[in-house]
Target: FAS1 domain-containing protein
Amino acid sequence: MESAKFSEEGPMSDSLALNILLSHMAIGRIDDNRLKVGSKFVTLANSTITVCKDQAGMKWLNGAKVLESNIFMYDLGAMVIVDGPVHPLPSAITQDGTSE
Model:
């Protein structure tokens, strides 16, 4: 397995890597009570995450299925575990939270 190649400054000196990280961090506390279908959250990268639901009732954050939510991180807020990157919003799940 080949290791990742980063500049001497580290992975966060790469603007793409930093943007990916910041696009997965939302402003404010997001717990189960706020993960309602149709809710939108602004990330630190100034992108928007929309809560959607598929026909099976699973919640999604844009293109990532919510695996676990409401994990309290001391002094950091709540964490939501997803199965992949949250961007972009896939065409199979509409903005109003329903599947096509």
